Amino acid sequence: MKAGKNVFLPFGLLAATLNLSLSYYFNVNAEDLVLSKPLDTNWFFLGEPAFNYGGFFVSSNEPTIYRLPSTIFLIILSIALFRYLMHTRTVAQSLFAAILLGGVGGLTLDILAYGSVCDWLGFKVPEATIYSMTNISDLMILVSAPIAALICVKGLIARSLGFCTAIAIVSSSTYYHFAALGDFFLLSRY
To answer: Is 190 domain-assigned?
Structure first.
């Protein structure tokens, strides 16, 4: 089933804007918010914002040149997704491309507006000793990137490269989440 031209494009742009709005809120109000600490019973919590200035596979609390390749990649991908959604696609292709545009566009706008990505949503496995921070943009990319790579890209080689790239990006974003899960499983064995 084909979706009409531009049907999901406004959704993707609105999602990116919503991500920037949430980032703005947590950037501006960080000191005034009473946010929860990671409890042993919570998987997700609103935590003190963490500002990541790094790039893919690079975490940094200060501005770094390693952000530049990631920023250029995010800008190019945002433009490509915008152009992709300008044409008639299937509903599934349009939906996952729009969700990916919301996530990638949100990160891009966050970096261009503040120089960093604001992570405010905490993830902690109960009874684990470590936790990680994320944001809605990262979650949108986590959900949509692998699927979009498989259904939106034409050609087996291009689709395989797109899927591998999506998995690498998801891996760079979820490294600390997996570390928390690993810590949980190691603790549960004893």
So the answer is: no
